[in-house]
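Holo prediction. Input below; ligand is magnesium ion.
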Amino acid sequence: MPSDIPPVLITENDIGTRVAELSRRISEDYAGVDDLLLVGVLRGCFIFLADLSRLLTVTRSVDFLALSSYERGTTSTGAVRLVMDLRVDIAGRHVLIVDDIVDTGQTLRYLITTLNARSPASLKTCILLRKRARMEEDFHIDYLGFDIPDVWVVGYGLDVGGRVRTLPYIGTVKGGGE
Ligand code: IMP
Ligand code: MG
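Structure of the complex:
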């Protein structure tokens, strides 16, 4: 039904342009690094990471972990859980976390603390979207796609209750934050 189609917040074209810019910057910054490890945070990262990683010109590998912070619908429980860990050991490696969105910042903070404890050579963050108004933790994001308002967004990997992840653009849904 047409009324179910999420209104566009960021077009497919604008996403593509920004992802290409990010990948160019990352490629420049890691030009001297042998093997950059991209750590994707499942499941929201999967489309962003697929597009970004294929545009990079540096040697890279990919691994994944899965976290859970939204146990019920779209309300944060505040507790972040590691539900699937990486396969590889990151000690001494250059690691770039790739995630879809930072809302309160709790998830990313947990991730940075957890991965830093494993002694990577470096640890940086690449995040597609940031809800600036919502951030509790004011930390630096190394590579950021877009700042967005405090609305629930879907598409390009992001879901609402497990749905509409494969929408090609970023759209908004009403009542997503409940
Ligand atoms: P945080 O810990 O509050 O920063 O939550 C971050 C996580 O919540 C993201 O990685 C997403 O999985 C999820 N999330 C937050 N806002 C949205 C949204 O608008 N759409 C879809 N997922 C979201
Ligand atoms: Mg996520």
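The CA atoms of residues 158 and 165 lie 5 Å apart. That is the main takeaway for now.
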